[in-house]
Amino acid sequence: MRRHGWIASWVVMIAAVALAAAGSCRAEGEVVARPAPGPGVEDQYDKLLGNILGPMVGAPAAGVSNPLGSAGGGAAAPGAQLSAEEWARRLVGNPQEGADTYGAVLATWLQSNPEALGALLEGEGQTPDEATLLRLLEGLPLGNPGGEPLLAIPKVYKAICAPLYKAHGEDLAFYKTLTPRARLVMTAYLGTLGKGDAMRALLGSLTTAEREALATPVGFVVGDTLEAERSRELLPLMIWAWKDEATRHGGDYPIMICWELQRACRGLGDVQVLRAEVLPWAEEVLGARDGGRDRDWALAALILGYQAAGDNAKAVERGGYWLEEGKKRAEGSYPLHRSAFYLGAAKSSTDYAGAADLFRKLIREAQGTWGEPAQVELLKLAQAHRDLTDVELMSAKFGAVMPARLSAQVGWGQSVVRKLTVQGSAAFRVAGASCDLPGARVEVGARQLSSGSRQEITVTLGALEQAGEHDGTVTLETNDPEHGRLAVPMHVEVASPLKVTPGSFFFGFVKPGETKTCTVTVTGAVAFHVKEVEVDKPELVKVTTTGRGDGSWLLVVDLCPPNATGVIEGNICARIANGAEEARMLIPYFANVMP
Q1: Domain end: 200, 227, 254, which one?
Q2: How far is CA 575 from the centre of its chain?
Q3: Per-residue b/e over 465-488, b at no fewer than 16 CB within 10 Å?
Q4: pLDDT tens track for 175-223
Q5: Is the pTM of this model over 0.70?
Q6: How many distinct structural domains can be found in the chain?
Q7: Same-domain pairing of 550 and 415
Q8: How far apart are CA 70 and CA 67, in angstroms?
């Protein structure tokens, strides 16, 4: 039962501890000796245990990674100086020490290495002796720290349960000799095989004292395990297990499971089981108990269940009836906000005015928890029905703008289109937007309502004819009093329309006093001409420019080096004109004067 955190609330961590322990508890203080090993089983079990613990104590088993590094963060683990085999013997000889030291670590290891145990079992070359399997079965976690179902690590459990089932089938007499813990695991495993009669009988064999010793609602454990299989064929067994446990407990338990029952049916798309097993149950328990805060979940489940079954009218009728009854029963202690929200959603298609009234009331009473979703639905209704008024009841609050900065790299003459997404509360909206870059056009998209509001802002820059870097700001006008104006920086780099081939004047090695010539060609995507050039070291470098018929320009450079040796380098600056626009282009030159 994920919503109520059943698994997380019980002995998840000590589950792994039992793998190291010499026995297990039926009831507090009553220790059951571990199964008597056959020939060689003690060594086999100890070896398996050593292989499992090896990565955690500095002696890794082949193919198994150490999830904790150096015993989890640099500090040496207790017993890290021991070999895996030595640690296994020590653990078996003193199980409490091992339990205190490595229980939680082993649970984490099993969770992060779901296939490792199966590989270790296979690595033995044969199926372990039954006594070894039972000891492993007794020690594996019934859940994990995240509160997941019993078979949260299915490959681990099934690697142990499958050989036992192969040997004993549905021999309930054998399974009933197991400890309550092992019996519960085998019960769930039988359920995953679809063995309903055997599962029910074995679960029923657990006495009240044994159930209390396990410290968990065992039927919910089995039900959650079956749900994890995601099988429509197992859905009736899953529901039976939940109902059986809820009935045994009585009180508010039957009303407590309604949400889980409808969620499982809807998740698997089984409308038939929903109609037959869940809706009648929910109707009955809603009439039998107040249910406290769980009544809100149960009534919401009933409304959603009728809708999933294709009967929206029934969802509205029964939801409205039980909502009024619930107000009388709960006497205001536990508000039925969830139920009111789903009832409003169900009424939206047939009685939008009534739905709007429900949402307005919910906004005023529930504020953020259910008020914000109700505000979203009320605004959606107003979009579809223009006669609705008084629809923006919550304050507008800015959430985020993404990305926080716009940037673009484009070629000369290319346009730029960039988008922003602005999020906020349901009532938040962007009323206007602008950009201070030349020729910019900004469009504000329609407000999209989901979990809050969302708007897309489109910024378009026309073809930029000036090469270089351009910086500007996109300004958003909003209805949030605290964020009335939002500024988003925008940076655009426009590549030059001109190309120089090659990119420099490279003279290479030149003898002292020897004149050498290099040329480059300047081409462009636009009409241009070279107005003039400036050079570094004009006494050494002479430049001639010539326009060509194809629109390109040829730059010829004559280098007249001195008699002295050394490196000569600098830049030639060409002033390029394109109509009224001018740009400067730097072209480097290099020579090495050597005798």
Answers
A1: 227
A2: 56
A3: eebeebebebebebbbeebeebeb
A4: 999 988 889 989 999 999 999 999 999 999 999 999 988 877 889 888 9
A5: no
A6: 3
A7: no
A8: 9
